[in-house]
């Protein structure tokens, strides 16, 4: 395909205006080698160990960050575990190396060893980034196929073991048995992810197997709000335009048929757009205060969560008489707690309710939002027995400060042991694992239709749970079909409330088990029902004990012994290589000759981020003024195929202007889409404009175009904001 003059002009303007302005330097802040103190990279250092100190410090930081990411992993825990075996091996290796610095002088004087150490830092950084990606749903979807995730995993394992060997870090991990274990873990996780994607539903994954656009918008908006809180002086598009919906009071009508249950405490039933809605009295502070603006943004995000069928829909704020109300969808049957107090719930119906709640939690957690108070009292039930997560008064984003929850005495029954262990001296952040524990307690509450530890003092509950105790699980005599359901439900509960965080099930694992159990229940049919209270005998005579699980341990590690250095021997003669982050800083300061040398040196060691920067410099002719578009094109592709978003964007653009390269619209769109889906704002704008207006002979897809334009506008892209205004669309 050849470009006409109009297309060339459009792309030229788009790139000229946004190419540099929206380049995401922050993406590369994670590729930093942090020295323990000032270190002049051109200086001659007398101590033979000195060149390695900033690299060792950097590795220590990378290992700590990787461990933190792993502890918060929501998906693909087996894959992450295999890589963490390597991270732990590296940790032991580095600590031993630090302890025996004096015995490794021969290696420290070797330029080859020094360059291998730099490569090792790069490999560890990429392992950290890979664990970050595969442990979240949005990150995993960046891999176009399961095979691409598999290929990247095997590549990282191979590079890790090669550099460990080159550095003489011998471990017992490299074995045929370990390779078989790794392959089994990889296959298990990828198969589970495939099943999960197929069954989770439109609230999370759309019909085209992409992340729901609402999820993408919520994640982008949350990031902008976080940036606003960090830099309060800087306003952005989200801050100015993200407002909660306001409903005119005259649009709230009286129900056609009134019932006694139309009023529940401070909540009253009305009709809005022919729908039954719940109007809940709320006190909102003054409209112009910062607190009010923050609350408005929180409520606006809550309004966007209605994209999930298992989260109660919030329509906006309104007024009834002289007080303000929040308008939600109406749940005819009230809370799940009220439902089980009034009726006995059939076992298959319980499984379906649990599956609905799990779907809602997956949606929330994918948005990086924690509910903080998961229990049956905060689940609303529709007339069709659909479960919807509600009562978000304690909800917070994952990275927000933990909420000081009032009514702690009540919710302690669902609280995870790690939170119960919190003290004034040692605070514990509420995490996704905490929420999974609470969900496990909710499942117990649903199974037995009563409060956990109902007649036990709060202090005794805390002591009991911290010592590994849990609520009693015992079943009555039931039909064989019901007994099979109960046993499987019991295993799910126990997997969710494990004391050891590493043994606690992930939400994906729980969802797949509930989904399978729901399919089995569908064959029974009759158990999907509500029964008169007292019909089902919920407790039997026997209690169950938790079973301790054993996990494989990492092997022992050994290091070759090298004789101590003789006194007076300590100098090295090889040139030092500037860390990549320092080169990026030099680029920002306009020191292009210094930056060029840094990018070139690190590129020669295989660092794909350095290859990206080198490709950029070759395209622009920095610093010599001589451009090499062909080599730049090759380097950008290598970086793009290593999932670097800005490299994907620039590689797509290089398809337009590299001599000897015929423009391929399919490939252009593929790499541009990868960059856009990874958050590159300029790519989002260009792709949205293409789909919206048929640029580059692209088929017009208005919905897809508006999706990317909205994301670009959230990212403060001025042209996208103009286009959004023109289309009369808002957040």
Automatic annotation (TrEMBL):
Sequence ranges assigned to domain Protein kinase in this UniProt record: 194-517
Gene Ontology annotations of biological process type: cell surface receptor signaling pathway
InterPro entries: Adaptor_Cbl_N_dom_sf (IPR036537), Kinase-like_dom_sf (IPR011009), MLKL-like_MCAfunc (IPR059179), Prot_kinase_dom (IPR000719), Sel1-like (IPR006597), Ser-Thr/Tyr_kinase_cat_dom (IPR001245), Ser/Thr_Kinases-Pseudokinases (IPR051681), TPR-like_helical_dom_sf (IPR011990)
Gene Ontology MF terms: ATP binding; protein serine/threonine kinase activity
Transmembrane stretches, start-end: none
Name of the protein in question: 5911_t:CDS:1
